[in-house]
Amino acid sequence: MKKELPYAKAELNNAVITELEHPIHVMFHVSFPDGYENIFFTDPESGRWLEQDLGPTDLAEAIGQLTACQPDLEKSLRKLRWISEIQLGRNILFGFLQFNLSQFNAFEIYHANHRYLFTIVRINDALWQVFRPEKDADWNDKDDLLQWLPEILEAHSF
């Protein structure tokens, strides 16, 4: 049985679609005539279109088709490791990709909704440097994650 989209094709064509520059994702902000709006982006693991905080939806797939933007999957897909831990009674859930940056260990950090948050680089045992997209600073609500990251990443990295 075919699922119906929450918006008719005509409404999709009347949506205001704005591409958002992003270092990892193909990403768009979409506003519909009825006032609904959300961010739509490609999943770094599968390349599928996601609706922020809702995941893979029919609407996300339709936005991906409408924009005709498909990432080069061979270059853009990542195999993330997912961590879920309790720290001081709080559930910490995030994904990461570890890689070497010159002589340093670096980690791309992803929100539970698969959106890239920032890259953190281990300079030495006591110093870590965070790099984040400037335009994502308003959305990025995971600054509290930073206090736990060095300890968690040390335990789960190679």
Characterise the protein shown here.
The protein has 158 residues and is an alpha+beta fold. It has helices spanning 9-13, 58-67, 73-76, 149-156; strands at 16-20, 27-31, 37-42, 49-51, 81-87, 90-101, 104-110, 116-124, 127-131. The protein has a five-stranded antiparallel β-sheet, with no helix packed on it. The protein has a four-stranded antiparallel β-sheet with strand order 1-2-3-4, with helices on one face. The radius of gyration is 17 Å and the shape is elongated.
| Average of pLDDT | 83
N-to-C terminal Cα separation, in Å? 46 Å
Question: Can you list the strand order of the major beta sheet?
Answer: 5-6-7-8-9
CA radius of gyration is 17 Å
**Helix-strand pattern:** HEEEEHHEEEEEH
Question: Structural class given helices, strands, pairing?
Answer: alpha+beta
Number of helices: 4
Beta fraction: 35-45%
Helical proportion, percent range: 10-25%
- Overall shape: it is elongated
Number of domains: 2
| Quaternary assembly | single chain
Low-pLDDT stretches? none
How do the strands and helices of this protein lay out in sequence?
Blueprint: H1 9-13, E1 16-20, E2 27-31, E3 37-42, E4 49-51, H2 58-67, H3 73-76, E5 81-87, E6 90-101, E7 104-110, E8 116-124, E9 127-131, H4 149-156
Antiparallel strand pairs: 1-2, 2-3, 3-4, 5-6, 6-7, 7-8, 8-9
